[in-house]
User: Fold these one by one.
Assistant:
Number 1:
Amino acid sequence: MDHDFWHQKWRDGQIGFHEKDVNPLLIKNLPALKLPGPSRIFVPLCGKSHDLAWLAEQGHTVVGAELSQQAVEAFFEEHEMVPTVTQSGALRRYRSGPVELLAGDFFDLTEQDLGPVDAVFDRAALVALPAEMRRAYSARLRALTGTAPQLLVSFDYDQSQMKGPPFSVPASEIHAHYDPFYTVDQISSEPISGPLGQRTKGSETVWILSPG
């Protein structure tokens, strides 16, 4: 993970990847995870996403991991929450009510830091990483979460037309990373919309990864 690249993005306010509203695919597809009730949901590479607050409003406990301490602090400030800050291994833990965010490198996160989780929402993590890091990421996420079920969003577009991130991660790669460990179901695929859709044409796909 290129720390300097992402830190510079946040310092310069070049955060077009940050959505101004809750991701509609999360709202639409969260029931597909079939969570039995209030659950502990992990959001890797979460930025200051409004998805975190929305999940908490649905009664869930939310834990996120984010490289940028600036982004983590901005989330709590924008939502008028005052977190308790402690050190957790190599990361800093910010906690307020049902939301806790771990600031630091995802690959420095340990199972002890994260604790048990019931599900994962990956909208902006797998697609944020270059190809050479995605296999290591998917393996580490699986180890951290005990192969918890995932709601995963990916993009598929002509990578030669746009450098990324977000990167194109086609269905063949999703299956290569996850088929040995999950039942992988594609539940929707729609044309890319929003700011990214103005930059490139392709599909935005939602997957459910169920253990077993």
Number 2:
Amino acid sequence: MGIGLLGYSGHAFVVAEAALLCGHHLVGYANKVEVATNPFSLAYLGDERAKTFQGWERCTSFILGIGENKIRVKVAAYVRKRGHQCHTIIHPDASVSSYTKMGEGTFIARGATVNPLCTIGNDVIINTAASIDHECVVNNGAHVAPGAVLAGNVIIGSGAFIGANAVIKEGIIIGDNVVIGAGSVVLKNVADGEKVVGNPARRYE
């Protein structure tokens, strides 16, 4: 018995390495099909939606290796419905304040920083070298991409995607399911569902 990995490509490889560095035992991976590239020599457990899926019996819990927000949240909900837990994984080289509240199913990658009094929801990704300053809130299912910076008191809505190396000014509110383009500098609040790009960030039509 051990932990199952949900998804097995790209982002999942990063999550798997972090889990192993944390001392977790990975039993195998769940995916729609068996993959050709298997860098961690994990057993194929099948598709978690299939009746033949081996993970329910072989795994005590799961970690989320899915980068796309909507799919990750949907899979996490299904796993919980089946009575299993989604683990939070914090890379040993990340720096997370003990005064931060963290949900389950979240991943904090190598070199990320989360400062005091932040709240990080369920099924969130704080990716490589992202910086989350004091009193930020990152809501369920959001993804803060590599190198992105949230200044103090920023609120990120559920399912939002903050692109690589984007900068969010202090006190800004980013709505649900927003997409912030890579390298954007966000100086104003962004409403639910909008896409913004540029410096300063403007709505993308």
Number 3:
Amino acid sequence: MKILILLYLTAVTGLSLALFQDPVLEESMQRGSEIYDDFCVTCHLGQGEGVAHTFPPLAKSDYLMNNREASIRGIKYGQSGELIVNGVTYNSVMARMGLEDEEIADVMNFILNSWGNSSEEMVTPKEVEAIQKK
């Protein structure tokens, strides 16, 4: 009987963790959503789908998920040059947005956890601050 109760509690705890995100992450994502709407939606569009061969998608983006530091650097300092996202080559310019480190962390948390993306590690302002321009 104790084993069944332990299994039940373990299952309920696991389900709760899966269904309810960390409140700190949720708040960051909410702020990030607002920043996205102000700075990013024009090029990357409302559902992060981007514009084929012009502005890369953020939705289900292999580049975003596999190049965390480069993605943060692109938002922080701007970006130009060729990159490949989901097998498609992009070669356009993204201007520096002029965002503070906390704003960059918030928008990264939003895009890393939206539109089919899922990140286990929250982006922090301290992480953004440590990233230098190459």
Number 4:
Amino acid sequence: MQIGELARRTQVAPRLVRYYEQQGLLAPARSENGYRSYTEDHVERVTRIASLVQAGVPTRLVRVLMDAEDAAARDEETCPVAVAEQLAAELVGLESRLACLTRSRDTIRDFLVRTQHEVLLREDSPLPS
């Protein structure tokens, strides 16, 4: 499949697919005319990369994670100490961002309750609770 189809199936813009390739996260084959050629495995990989990036993991660590997953698939060592140290440091940052997001969510929820707009927090409301 070509980049447009991959982008449609993964809901990732073609520009981001090319960026993932530039970052060494994706390696499509090239056809004789130079077009990128993607497989079903690329659909899964792009989806996984995009979810990690959306979770706030920087692409340099996404590459570390993807390399570790690739190594595991080849029954090779997947987590040398240097990789574990990088991931542990990133985990501290993720935990901090999660705490900040939780505080923000709680502040907004409390404000809506105090201003008597808690009806917007109902399960069937268009806003997430």
